Amino acid sequence: METKSELISRIDLALNEVRPHLAVDGGNVEVVDVTDEKVVKIKWLGNCQNCNMSIMTMRAGIEQAIRVKVPEITGVEAVNGLVL
């Protein structure tokens, strides 16, 4: 059985594919936790914290990259940033 630490490592590897795109705009993302329900909790860093495009980035970039590499993940949620 995979440990939470191993799962987070796999998620981080998936996020490495989108991090260069975030860095262009001065941002980044960090994995904070993975719940028992396999929901990834992320934290927006840098300019991503207050970006009005973060919701679209979450769905089109972050969530897609994670689900391709770590298909058992059921969702992705930000613990900071804009609240809609």
UniProtKB/TrEMBL annotation:
- State the Gene3D superfamilies in the record: Fe-S cluster assembly (FSCA)
Where the record annotates domain NIF system FeS cluster assembly NifU C-terminal, the positions are 12-77
At the top level, the lineage of the source is: Bacteria
Q: Which GO terms describe its molecular function?
A: iron ion binding; iron-sulfur cluster binding
> Which Gene Ontology BP annotations are present?
iron-sulfur cluster assembly
Which PANTHER family does the entry link to? IRON-SULFUR CLUSTER SCAFFOLD PROTEIN NFU-RELATED, NIFU-LIKE PROTEIN 3, CHLOROPLASTIC
Give the similarity note: Belongs to the NifU family.
What is the protein name given in its UniProt record?
A: Nitrogen-fixing NifU domain-containing protein
Organism per entry:
Haliscomenobacter hydrossis (strain ATCC 27775 / DSM 1100 / LMG 10767 / O)
